[in-house]
Amino acid sequence: MDILLVASAFNSLCQRVHVELADRGHRVEAVLASHGDDAVREAVRDTAPELIVAPMLRTALPEDVWREHTCLIVHPGPPGDRGPSSLDWAVAEDAGRWAVTVLQAEAGMDAGAVWASVPFTVEPVGKSDLYRGEVSDAAVTAVLLAVERYAGGSYKPRPQSDPGICVVRRDFFRQERRRVDWRHDDTATVLRKLRGADSRPGVLDDLLGQEVFLHGSHPEDELRGRPGELLATRNGAVCRATRDGAVWIPELRPRRGSAAPAPFRRPAADVLGDRLSGVPEVPAPLEPRPGRRTWSDIRYRRHGDIGHLAFSFPGGAMSTSQCRRLLAAYRHALTRPTPVLVLGGVRDFFCNGIHLGVIEAAADPAEESWTNLNAMNDLVEAVLRTTDRLVVAALGGNAAAGGVMLALAADEVWCRSGAVLNPHYRRMGLYGSEFWTYSLPRRVGDATAERLTREALPVSAASAVRLGLADRLVTAAPGAFPERVRRLAAALAGTPDLGERIAAKAAARARDEERRPLAAYREDELARMRRVFTDPEAPYHALRSAFVRKLPCGSPRPLAPAPALPEEAR
Asked: pLDDT tens-digit profile of 50-78?
C-alpha cells in the first residue's frame, strides 16, 4: 500500500516503523507534524495515501485529515489508556506489564477504535531505553498487525465503548511529580524518578546554585554522604548521595532561559564546570568485581577465549574524551590473549558517531568537531588494524554515521532484529569520515555504497544483512541480547578453523594496505571534512545547532532526497 507516516519527529520509532513497512513492500512517505498542519495537508495531497500511520505524535492530526482518511495512531499504553504521558506513568508506578495500542484517530484523544494491541514487559531501565527497545518491538508488531488487518478489509476495529475495555484517563506527568526529595527519597525511588525522565523531559533540580534538568541515573554501592551532596565525578558524570545510598547522573541540561549559554543535554561535569571545584574525580573500574553496582560507561570482561568490551554512552554519541577512553580500553583488551573480541553487545545504542552536543557547546565548535572526528578516526583505525584476533561488533540497538563505520571496521557485525542503521552523513551536511570510503564499499560494493550515502535513508537490521552491512541477525528481546551474544561468541571461538580465519584476515589487510594505505583514505576524508568545519557558512553548523536544540530544520519531508553536499565536501 501507499502509506504516509505523520510524526512530530523522525525519531527512532518512526524510522523503525518506516523500514519495517518498506521491507514488506509498502511504499512509505513521511511528513513532520512539527512543521504545522499545512505541511501535513500538503503531504496528504501529494502522496494520496491509502493509509496514514502516526508512530509518534505530540499534537492532534488536522480534523479534515482524519475525517477523510483512515489514520492509525500509535499509543504507548494499553487499550483504554488515555493521556499524553502513558509511558511516564508506567515507569513511575513500576508497572510490570504495559502495552502499545494502535487506534483510529477521532475527535477524542486516544479514544478511537482499537486496531491492534501488543503487550510488553517494563524492564527497570531508563524510559528512553525502554522506548527504543521493548516499546519499539511491541509498536512495530502492533503496526504491522493493524496494517495487515486494514489491508484485508474485513477486520472491524474494537470500539473503546466495549465493556471489556477499562478506560483510564491519566494526567500530564508534570515536574511536580518528578521532583526528587533528596532528604527523604530512598535510592530506589530516586532511580525510578530519574529513569522516568532520562531523555525527555529530565527532572528539574538545583545543583550547586544552578537550575538544571537531570538526565539518566545509575546506582552506586560504595560512595556515601549527606543526602543531596555531590560526592564525586567520573568521566563527566556526577555522583549524588541519597538518604540510603547514592546515584550517578551522567547528563544535565541547563534550564532554558537561565544564564547558561548552552541549554541542551551535555555531560554533567561540563555543565557544572568550576562549580565542581573540590569534588573529587573517582576512577571508573574497567573490570569491576562481580556484583559491583556502580556506573561506568566502558567495561571489559573476559570469558575464556572471549574478550568483551562493552560501552554505553548517553544518546549513543561519543565526545573526544569518550573516544580516547574507549581507544585506551580497546588497547587494554588487545593485551589479553583472546582470539575473539566483542565490541558493544549491550542493549540500546551502539554508537551514533561524534558528540554534536559537546561540539555545539565548545568555545570553538569547528575546532572541537575536528578534534572529536580525529579521536573517532583513531578508534576506528585501531579496530581496522587488529590482525591477531577476530573482532565482532554486536549492535543491540541503533547506530548512525561514524557509529556504523565503527561497526564495519570489525570482522563480523551482529545486529539485534530491532536495530536501525543510518550508514550516511549527508543529512548533517557532511561528507563523512571514519574510513567509510574503505569499509563501506568493502562490505557492499561501490554502487550500493554510493546509493546508501546519497539516499541517506535508514536501514533495518534485516536489510543490513541482505545488503552485506551485517553478518548475523540476532532475534532476541533487548534484555536477552547480551547473553545471546555471549553464547554466539563462545561458539565462534570454538570453531576449528578460527586460526585460519585470523591468518586470512591478516593477509587480506596486508594486501589492502599495499593496494592503498589506510592513511590515504583518512587523509582524503579528513581534508573534505576540515573544509566544511572551517567554513562558517557550511550547512553543517546550522543543522548541528538545530539538532541539539531539537528545533525544526530543513524539509518537513524527512525521506526526501538528501540535499547535495557543498562543492568542497564532494
From this structure: 999 999 999 999 999 999 999 999 999 99
Q: What is the pLDDT of residue 268?
A: 97
Distance CA 353, CA 530 (A): 16
Domains and CATH numbers, the chain: 2-169 (3.40.50.170), 178-276 (3.10.25.10), 298-481+499-549 (3.90.226.10)
Degrees to nearest 5, angle at CA 556 with 14 and 24: 35
Looking up cell 555543565, which residue turns up? 271
Q: Does the pLDDT at position 425 exceed 80?
A: yes
Q: CA neighbours within 13 Å on the CB side: how many for 349?
A: 22
Task: Give per-residue pLDDT as tens, 194-240.
Answer: 999 998 899 999 999 999 999 999 999 999 999 999 999 999 999 99
Q: Write the pLDDT tens digit of every residue in 328-339.
A: 999 999 999 999
Contact predicate 386/340, CB 8 Å: no
| pTM of this structure | 0.96
**Three-state DSSP class for 554?**
coil
Three-state DSSP state, 525: helix
Angle between helix 436-444 and 446-455 (nearest 10): 120
* Three-state SS annotation for 270-334: HHHHHHHCCCCECCCCCCCCCCCCCCCCEEEEEECCEEEEEECCHHHCECHHHHHHHHHHHHHHH
Residue 324 CA: distances (Å) to CA of 101, 356, 478: 43, 16, 28
pLDDT in the model for residue 450: 96
What are 511's three cell numbers? Answer: 594486501
Q: What is the 3-state secondary structure (H, E, C) of 106-141?
A: CCCCCCCCEEEEEEEECCCCCHHHHHHHHHHHHHHH
Give the residue carrying C-alpha cell 512543521. Answer: 35
Evaluate whether 232 touches 282 at the Cβ level (below 8 Å): yes
Question: Given this model, what pLDDT does residue 258 score?
Answer: 55
The DSSP string of 92-107 is HTT-SEEEEEEEE--S
> Mean pLDDT throughout 521-548?
96
Q: For 161, phi and psi rounded to 5 degrees?
A: -80, -10
pLDDT digits (tens, 9 = 90+) for 162-207: 999 999 999 999 999 999 999 999 999 999 999 999 988 999 999 9
Calpha distance 143→55 (Å, rounded): 9
Rounded CA separation 343/150 (Å): 42
